[in-house]
Amino acid sequence: MKKKDKTILLVEDNPDDAELVLLALGKLDIRSKVITAKDGKEACDKLFGPKAMRPDLVFLDLNLPKIGGLEVLKRIRNDERTKQLHVVIFTSSVEEEDVIKGYGLGVNNFVRKPIDYRDFATVIRTLGIYWLTEEAVGRKQEAGSSKQ
Amino acid sequence: MQNVGAPLKWRFIAVFMVLSAGIIAVGAVFYARQRAAVEAKEKSTVFSIAELKRTELTGWWKERLGDAETIFENSIFIHQVEKYLTDRKNAHLRTDITDYLNSLRKNYDYVIVRLLDTLGEPVISDPSVAYPLSKEAKGVILRAVNDKKVTVSDLEREEKENVIHIHIAVPLIDRHAAGEPVKGAVLLAVDPVRFLFPLVQSWPVPSATAETLLVEREGDEIVYLNELRHKKDTALKLRIPVTTADLPAARAVGGFEGVMWGRDYRGVGVLAAVLPVGGTPWFIVAKIDASEVFAPLRRVAAGSMIFAVLLIIISGMSLKYYWQKQQTLSEEALRVSEERYGTLLDISPEAFFVNRGNRIEYVNRAAMKLLGAERHDDVVGKTPFDLFHPDYHAVVGERIRVMLEQGRQVPLIEEKIVRLDGTVVDVEVAAGPFTDERGPAIMVFLRDITDRKRAETELRDLNETLEKRVKERTVELESFSYSVSHDLRAPLRAIDGFSVALADDCLGELGDKGKEHLKRIRRGVSKMGGLIDDMLTLSRVAMAEMRRERIDLGGMAEEIVSSLKETEPERKVEFVAAKGLTANGDSRLIRVLLGNLIGNAWKFTSKSPNARIELGADYIEGVKVFFVKDNGAGFDMSYADKLFTPFQRLHSESEFGGSGIGLASARRIVARHGGNIWAEASPDKGATVYFTL
């Protein structure tokens, strides 16, 4: 199996959090490239604008300026081009409402950012492995069929 | 005012009728008693007269028979007769006998006295008469001669002479020589008209219609023997069948003795006393016309009738007078009270009007003011529907109907009226039916509730405002706590993350001491994170909307325990939950509560080898109490009051971790469910936390 470079879109407004995610992903054995968007608008530009990217995984924060995380998710799921993207909501606080909305909009995972960095890193790595390895292809198809 | 007296009038009339009836009754009774008295007296009189007559008759007969016996026993006379009859030429004897007969006739008042020979032929007569003996006379003589006894004939009418005689035949025999034939006979003729009839017919007291009469039965006829008062030429001629009903004479011959009411030979109603004359075939009837009997009564009757009528008139008049007096009195009283109350009602502060026949008949000042009317006429005459707002017309109509048909008050309700100037006013309406001399009507009280309605609206608005504000605040708080927790966490994450990064990337430069510092930094971060979570939980617990439902506590506890076990799989903890533990509460909050209590139990049994956590329920004084019990470290009861205070810890951090906020949350949750929470424990023996929901 050829290991392709994977692209990850990290939508995060907090630079510290972004840095921590990058550090954690750096420890991943998978070669990946991380593109950051610091707000919802930038995220949408990157996904829908000219030179739209097709990331293999999207880490999506909810508390984003300009366009909020759930709105971005909605747009992703409503657009034919991006419908099938793997999206993980990675957010500070887990309000039940948001969880429900998130899953309702078709997010793949809804994860709370742990304060403890060890846990933080573990979560990132687990998610990364889960969605970026070749097995993900099969999962992609699964996900596709289960998406409504 | 006319009809006020109506029922009373009838009462007076009733009294009058009763009184009149009473007077009449008394009068009637009086009259009846008088009548009865008169009747009784007359009966007694009549009977006495009959008895008297009878006695007289019987006496008379006795005398006659006595006369006859005297002759019969007169031996001297008999011898003389015997001698004469053999020697008719003896003038001397003849003269003697004639003298004797004459004396008999004169002194004993006979009409004719005859001496007869043995063949029954008259030999000597006094007075000397020409006519021969009648058949009847002869018959009597024969019988007397045969029987050798004094024999009497009945009253006989001697047709040829048109006279009535009774004959007494005395056979002349030698009594000492009984076997010898009769020597002769004497025939005495009595003229009843001379003595007998007058005796019978006389009435001891003057009377207009009374008479006594003598009757005897001949076959099926009654023969009237004497001359009657009311009919001429009846002696021995008037005959009436014995079967005539009510005829006293008929009843007499039938055997009746006594007094009776009947109809006499004229058919006139009479009171008759009827008696048989012993020793004769005769019956005596003493009678008096009924009209005469009751004649005196007529006067009494007239008198008492006049008296009664007078009494009735007097009572009628006095009743009328009394009644009229009553009328005027009650009219007075009514007028006074009307004035008094009329005025009161008119000036009463409560608006009031009277609806009669769907017309406003009366309206008081307060009502006029309420309606904005200056004059009575502005309102009087209108219909209630003119006063009430059209929205309420149906209701008003219905209420009127109910009041008039069922005669009961209707409940107090709110309606709207329309003033004369068109403005609408909120009112409270009380109404009820009543009836007076003019018929049924409805009284209505109105109360202006504009102020009250305004106050109600304000209150409602205020409530709404408050509710809205509370909601806003809650939302604010929620977003506040949301953002707080979110915003606080981010820096913590950064601190922790970069500490780790520092440790990983700069391991060599840091050295052991540096690593130790970082560890402490991380520990601090972790603690803070926990605190933030706890605070968030607590605030959520305090503010979140509660929704009660049935919760399976056992199941929930099992989940909590299993997730705890997942985090520390090496620990051996026995968990026992009583079966069928259910409660009514908010599912999320209860989960937090159980999580806290079981989590505490889990924590404080971490140092116990045979950790046991139990969830159960008891009934204490009839109340269901849940408990979470552990056999862990327990605590000193003297610090129990600090137990549920936020951030208060009863063990040092090194012994058992924890922020000290768990039980405060638990208490908050229990309080929101309206329950109580308390704990009992002893050091090293374990603790039990009780709670009710």
Provide an overview of this structure.
The complex is a heterodimer of chains A (148) and B (693). With 148 residues, chain A is α/β, with parallel strands linked by helices. Chain A has a single domain, classed as Rossmann fold. Chain A has helices at 15-26, 40-48, 69-78, 96-105, 117-132, 135-146; strands at 6-11, 32-37, 57-60, 87-91, 109-112. In chain A, strand 1 (6-11), helix 1 (15-26) and strand 2 (32-37) form a beta-alpha-beta unit. Among the domains of chain B are: 74-196, PAS domain (Beta-Lactamase, 2-Layer Sandwich); 348-448, Beta-Lactamase (2-Layer Sandwich); 454-525; 546-691, Histidine kinase-like ATPase, C-terminal domain (Heat Shock Protein 90, 2-Layer Sandwich), CATH 3.30.565.10. In chain B, helix 12 (450-505) packs antiparallel against helix 13. Chain B starts with 5 loop residues before the first helix and ends with a strand. Chains A and B meet through helix 1 and helix 5 of A and helix 12 and helix 13 of B.
Low-confidence stretches of chain B: none
The CATH topology of the domain at 546-691 in chain B, please?
Heat Shock Protein 90
Largest interface (CB within 8 Å) is between: A-B, 18 and 21 residues
Strand content of chain B: 15-25%
How do the strands and helices of this protein lay out in sequence?
The complex is a heterodimer of chains A (148) and B (693).
Chain A: E1 6-11, H1 15-26, E2 32-37, H2 40-48, E3 57-60, H3 69-78, E4 87-91, H4 96-105, E5 109-112, H5 117-132, H6 135-146
Helix pairs in contact in A: 1-5, 2-3, 3-4
Chain B: H1 6-73, H2 75-86, H3 91-108, E1 112-116, E2 122-126, H4 135-147, E3 151-152, E4 156-158, E5 163-172, E6 184-190, H5 196-201, E7 211-218, E8 221-224, E9 239-241, H6 248-253, E10 258-263, E11 269-276, E12 282-289, H7 290-293, H8 295-347, E13 351-356, E14 359-363, H9 365-371, H10 384-387, H11 393-406, E15 410-418, E16 424-436, E17 439-448, H12 450-505, H13 507-543, E18 548-552, H14 553-567, E19 573-577, E20 582-586, H15 587-604, E21 611-620, E22 623-630, H16 662-672, E23 677-682, E24 686-691
Parallel strand pairs in B: 19-21
Antiparallel strand pairs in B: 1-2, 1-6, 3-5, 4-5, 5-6, 7-8, 7-12, 8-9, 10-11, 11-12, 13-14, 13-17, 15-16, 16-17, 18-20, 21-22, 22-24, 23-24
